[in-house]
Amino acid sequence: MVFPSTIMSIAFSELGRNKMRSALTMLGIVIGVGAVIAMVSIGQGAQATIAEQIASAGSNLVMVMPGSFNSSGIRNGAGTSTRLTEEDYRAIQRECPSVKYVSPLVRANSPVVFGNLNWLTNIQGVNTSFLAIKAWEMESGSFFTEQDVSSDQRVCVLGKTVADNLFPGIDPVGQELRIKNTPWRVVGVLKAKGQTGVGTDQDDTIVAPYTTVMKRIQRQSFIQGIMVSAVAEQATALAQQQITDLLHQRHNIISADEDDFTVRNLTDIAEMAQNSSRVMTLLLASIALVSLLVGGIGVMNIMLVSVTERTREIGIRMAIGATGGDIQFQFLMEAVVLTIAGGIVGVLFGITASRLISDSLGWPTLLSTAAIGMALAFSGAVGIGAGWYPARRASRLNPIDSLRYE
Hints:
- This protein is elongated.
- The protein folds into two domains: 4-53 and 274-404, no CATH class; 82-259, no CATH class.
- It is 56% helix and 18% strand.
- It is of the alpha+beta class.
- The protein has a six-stranded mixed β-barrel with strand order 4-5-10-7-9-8.
């Protein structure tokens, strides 16, 4: 019986004797493993980015938006209903136990002026729960107060984009800007949040008391939406149902077909986005695995050539006592050593490729230890699969015929 250490030594010796052939054979494995790691890192980077963007939209967020209404037999589009009121938002806050924070939402687009600079931006009218709902932090100054909301004060908090464009090199806090030709005092600046998944700049906004926006800018008595934060991520679906049931009762709605509002749970949107990204990751990994399988076919081909070239050597070893199992194990080990070595080099290649893709193209990538382990394990499995038939063939050679082989 030949010791495994001896067989391993012989395997390394044989592979080293044909360095160029071994290197070219490993190349298919290197490319396959590297491609798997790079593709999975791109997919997981996309998943992480989507999760981060969904989280930046708000904490356990549920949105209540106006629905449609009928006018003279014509059904108007979504968002045209004017039946959401302050009383609805207060009822949700009071009567829905799965809800933690609630804020009305009133939007307006308006030019904003400071000195000789102006900027067209979105103005959001909200209450003091806005920061908690949107998981947003202050960079400087402070947020407006409940007293500011109740007394319709003309105070505002600036998004970073607005602050940078209207107050270059100046601290905006305490300054006065003009909206609709009326003065508003800046009380704070929000930290930068960046773009949403569809490219909208979240920092290009001004946040103000909803009462002031309703009465002094929009001049309306209804609200354009309600932002809700559930008590926990797992409670968003329950909060959505409680809000729907409550508004059905308040608006005297019997059939869901008559809803004059819509309630959206962003958790569902997040799950759909994550599932789509997960499918794409699996697709990319599957394509990369094909190249790894092709590399395995190359290993099998070279091992068959090696068996043919070493037929006389196999006969000599059998003649001096090596069993068929020893011969099979030796050739199998040569194939596994070849693919594992290629797998290790492929891991380094995949990590380097992932970083180059991230740096040069700006695509988010996320290296996964699970993907690296899977790629190495698969390369080892490819080595066993590719080496089994050639090894089996070598072990079944007739020693006498092998000794006669020229």
